Amino acid sequence: MRPGEPPFGPLHSRPRRSAPYGGSVVRVHHPSTPPPSRPAAPAGAPGPGRPVQPIVPPATDWSFPSPHELPPDEDLVAVGADLEPGTLLRAYAGGYFPMPVSRTRIGWFHPEPRGVLPIEGLVVSRSLRRSMRRYTVTVDAAFDEVIRACADPARPLGWIDNRMLRAYGRLHALGWAHSVEVWDDDGLAGGLYGVAIGGLFAGESMFHRRTDASKVALVHLVEMLDQDPDVLLDVQWVTPHLSSLGAVAIPRLQYCGSLERALRRPLPSRLLSR
Hints:
- By secondary structure, this protein is an alpha+beta fold.
- It has a single domain, classed as 3-Layer(aba) Sandwich (Aminopeptidase).
- It contains seven helices and twelve strands.
- It has helices at about 85-95, 125-130, 145-150, 160-175, 215-225, 240-245, 250-265; strands at about 25, 60-65, 75-80, 95-100, 105-110, 115, 135-140, 175-185, 185-195, 200-210, 230-235, 250.
- The strands form three sheets. Strands 7-8-9-10-11-6-12 form a seven-stranded mixed sheet, sandwiched between helices.
């Protein structure tokens, strides 16, 4: 399998500093704010094997630092906790996302600055438009294949281990994690996956086996997201690859304001199970 582009997250581009924030994710003895509630279900029948609306999992008792308390020059800001669905949803709702920092420990990142792709700012070149005509695109048709391709150990600085595969597989089964697949006559050519909560889509990783296949997946994702100024497409860090498609870096607290507005929006209808 050919190595793909950098993931949405930097596991092809490490944080500026390797030292974590001086605290860790804190276990509390009472439930903190629960994950966002699911929006009202629209008309439509469920697809096979997955819910029409995301299922809210049990809350866990992990508490993350306030973004206002985070050091300005660190991306890795906490260590600890677990990868239970309730923990992950609480983290994403606060602007955090996980990556392993050792075989036993999970690091939590809240980059400064943060990479986002403005929906109206997507750059589609002529050559990419030509590539789009060569492929067929599906949504949530092969989530396991996509995440395993993103986890291919042959990719440089691979970071998606079995813990991450299991965790995001559970989120997918509950209706929170989604994949976009790009196909040609030879099979799966590329794709991406991420987590959707309300109007937030937090991209996690992307890969390609054929030219432009991951870019085609990203274009299709943007087309699926409602053209709402409060929709937020989080790409974590801006890489040269993502910058060529229109990604920009914004300050952490500006991101938090955008996130707060996005979480109030309903899940885009095209990400509902079918």
